[in-house]
Amino acid sequence: MIKLNNVTKKYLTQVALDDVSISLPQGKIIGIVGENGSGKSTTLKLMAGLIQPSKGAITINGENVTRRISTQVAYLSELDAYYPFYTVQETIDFFASQFEDFDRDRAKEILEFMRLEPNKKVKELSKGNRGRLKILLVLSREVPIILMDEPLSGLDPMVRDSIIKGLLSFVDIEKQTVIITTHEIREIEPLLDVVIALKKGKIMEITEVEEIRSIQKLSLVEWMKKVYEN
């Protein structure tokens, strides 16, 4: 269980997250949506322990979140943060050396699924293949929580499709919770169990995606338009 209790995050005078309190269930794929500057990336960084709240507290399974929470959390940044002179295989080996929970067998499966060349240097990879590599590194960790910041950003439709299939194939929902921030609403909708709409650092609404479809009779894009018009 992930809990944010009255969490505010300020950068100098800018409020990125404004007095947010939520409890997120285990075993779900959760989407955080909203316009640029709504607080999506800040929320993930707070959960990952990369930054600390200006006010309030964040706990994961009852433990206060600090940088040590990385033993329970795998975090995918929107930015490329890998050594460009490493090969794909050297990058995998480096991650395996950093995290005891890294599953080399799963990494090999995902490597083949993503059609990545193990001997190719990271700096020689296309943006799409760098995206695939980031997904591989995150999904190869056996942790209860996976945080993914804009995993589909800037990728062509073919790459997006393979990444979505990878998420479905290599995430163990009985044991793992996945939280994704995204602008690619249509592509990611089939994956999601729960959606959180943020605007200017505040939560507009939290809803089960199945309720949006079956009760409100809306697509996720239509639901978002309705939420943000209010």
Overview of this structure, please?
With 230 residues, the protein is an alpha/beta fold. It has a single domain (2-229), classed as Rossmann fold (3-Layer(aba) Sandwich). It is built from 8 helices and 10 strands. The strands form 2 sheets. A 6-stranded mixed sheet has the order 6-7-8-3-9-10, sandwiched between helices. It has a 4-stranded antiparallel sheet with strand order 2-1-4-5, covered by helices on one side. The longest helix is centred in the C-terminal third of the chain and has 14 residues, at 157-170. The radius of gyration is 17 Å and the shape is globular. The mean pLDDT is 89.
Summarize the structure.
The chain is an alpha/beta fold and 230 residues long. The protein has 8 helices and 10 strands. Helix 3 packs antiparallel against helix 4.
Which descriptors would you attach to this protein?
230 residues, alpha/beta, globular, Rossmann fold, 6-stranded mixed sheet
Flag low-confidence runs: none
> Helix content range of the residues, please?
25-40%
| CATH class assignment | Alpha Beta
The 3D shape can be described as globular
What do we call the CATH topology? Rossmann fold
Number of strands: 10
Question: Can you count the helices?
Answer: 8
The figure for the number of domains is 1
Q: In terms of structural class, how would the helical and strand content be classed?
A: alpha/beta
pLDDT average, as an integer? 89
If you compute it from the alpha carbons, what radius of gyration comes out, rounded to the nearest whole angstrom? 17 Å
Please report the distance between the alpha carbons of the first and last residues. 30 Å
Can you identify the CATH superfamily?
Answer: P-loop containing nucleotide triphosphate hydrolases
Provide the spatial order of strands within the biggest beta sheet: 6-7-8-3-9-10
Q: Based on the coordinates given, report the CATH architecture.
A: 3-Layer(aba) Sandwich
Name the beta content range: 25-35%
Secondary-structure element order, as H and E?
Answer: EEEHEEEHHHEHEHEEHH
